[in-house]
Amino acid sequence: MALISEKFNEALNAQIGEELNSAYIYLSASIWLKEHSYNKLSSWYFTQYNEELSHAYKFINYIIDVGGTAKIPAIPEPKSDWESVKEILETGYAHEQYITGKIHELVTLAEELKDYNPRELLQWFVTEQIEEEASASELVERQAAFKNDMLFDQHTVRNEE
Ligand code: OFO
């Protein structure tokens, strides 16, 4: 017997879509940045793209472990006509705040359903989102301090998790 309800399985499948949507947004940002020669920022977002794929896998693996059915929903086409570095960074930060809300919704739903199995998984994501928001917000603040995007790019390093 599956150790996951249909309702929670559906919610996790939707979250797989959110993580892959995040991946698409960051890959699209990485492409635009590379096209505009912001190579370090492009690499920062490419690493973030891969991290989002790993987030999706975490949910997929959990669903399989508890005997559910993992499904990938349709992923919307990401924005590609970015106006500026600033727009990308602000979009990234706002998006992480949105994702934090989605993770918190899953925590609430698991509690409502009295499903205690995903506690460790969800706590990992709650903690991860603190880091995700902090690094996205730091990029926004650093870009504002630099004023010159090319110089900002040259001073961008990603501290690996
Ligand atoms: Fe999956 O953490 Fe960003 O979106």
In short:
The protein has 161 residues and is mainly α. The protein has helices at residues 6-35, 39-65, 85-112, 119-146, 149-154. Residues 19, 22, 52, 55, 96, 99, 132 line the site of hydroxy diiron-OXO moiety.
Describe the structure.
The chain is an all-alpha fold and 161 residues long. The protein has one domain: Up-down Bundle (Ferritin). The chain is 74% helix and 0% strand. It contains five helices and no strands. Helix 1 packs antiparallel against helix 2, helix 1 runs antiparallel to helix 3 and helix 3 packs antiparallel against helix 4. The radius of gyration is 17 Å and the shape is elongated. It binds hydroxy diiron-OXO moiety. Hydroxy diiron-OXO moiety (OFO) binds next to helix 1, helix 2 and helix 3.
Topology (SSEs and partners):
Blueprint: H1 6-35, H2 39-65, H3 85-112, H4 119-146, H5 149-154
Helix pairs in contact: 1-2, 1-3, 3-4
Strand content of the residues, in percent?
under 5%
In the predicted model, the low-confidence regions spanning at least 5 consecutive residues are: none
Radius of gyration: 17 Å
Distance between the termini: 36 Å
Proportion of residues in helical segments: over 70%
- The CATH superfamily bears the name Ferritin, core subunit, four-helix bundle
Count of helix runs: 5
Largest sheet: none
Query: How many structural units, i.e. domains?
Result: 1
Q: Count all strands and give the number.
A: 0
Class inferred from helices and paired strands: mainly alpha
- What's the pLDDT, averaged over the residues? 97
CATH architecture: Up-down Bundle
